[in-house]
Amino acid sequence: MSRIGKLPVALPQGVKGFVAGNIVTVEGPRGKLNFTIRSGVKIDVIDEKLVFSIIGTDGIGTDGIGTDGIGTDRQAKADYGTARATLNNMVHGVSKGWTRVLELVGVGFVAKLQGNSIVLAVGFSHEVTMEIPNGIKAVVTKTKIELESTDRELLGTFAAKIRQVQPPEPYLGKGIKYSDEKVRRKAGKTGKK
């Protein structure tokens, strides 16, 4: 069983959590997010904390698979920790927010904001245009893209799509990289003497 799932998620001041059926809503000063609970996981709001539990752990065989052979209880145990981690990220998002910074490294590698899109010039014969999804704010300087959102999953997915346009290469380090990413460099070929 997940050790992460056992820990309750504290709701900071100004953040409220509601459970209606199988949907959990977290609301804070930066916005509002919803999460759909998978079957087998129960979430309650007790004393300004989100408390997680597993439903229906009876009927488990010694191997952790349900007596019906499907393994629903095993899946519930897996979803238990995932639900806790996701809701913890949502609480952090609506209270403080999430940020991701990407850097463009290379001669002539630039980014610019054009309406609701980021336009990248990263060594191709054409510019690459990426539309910014709803829920993400972007601040673009020439060689730096700063993304901010309440939804960590949406932010991480969009940042990964931007990085995927031109990932950093190991010889000169050119490409789009995260600001905290360390690119492992390789030695190039040595010329004949």
Structure commentary:
Helices cover 20% and strands 35% of the residues. It has a four-stranded antiparallel sheet with strand order 11-12-7-13, with helices on one face. The chain starts with 8 loop residues before the first strand and ends in a 15-residue tail after the last strand. The protein contains two helices and 13 strands. β8 and β9 form a beta hairpin. It has 193 residues and is an alpha+beta fold.
Query: What profile does the largest beta sheet have?
Result: 4 strands, antiparallel
Q: What's the SSE pattern?
A: EEEEEEHEEEEEEHE
Rg from Cα = 22 Å
- Can you tell me the overall shape? elongated
Percent range for β-strand residues: 35-45%
- Count of individual beta strands: 13
| Uncertain residue segments | 59-69
Q: Give the averaged pLDDT, no decimals.
A: 87
Widest β-sheet, arrangement of strands? 11-12-7-13
DSSP helix fraction: 10-25%
Termini separation (Å)? 62 Å
Total helical segments: 2
Give a short synopsis of this structure:
The chain is an alpha+beta fold and 193 residues long. Helices cover 20% and strands 35% of the residues.
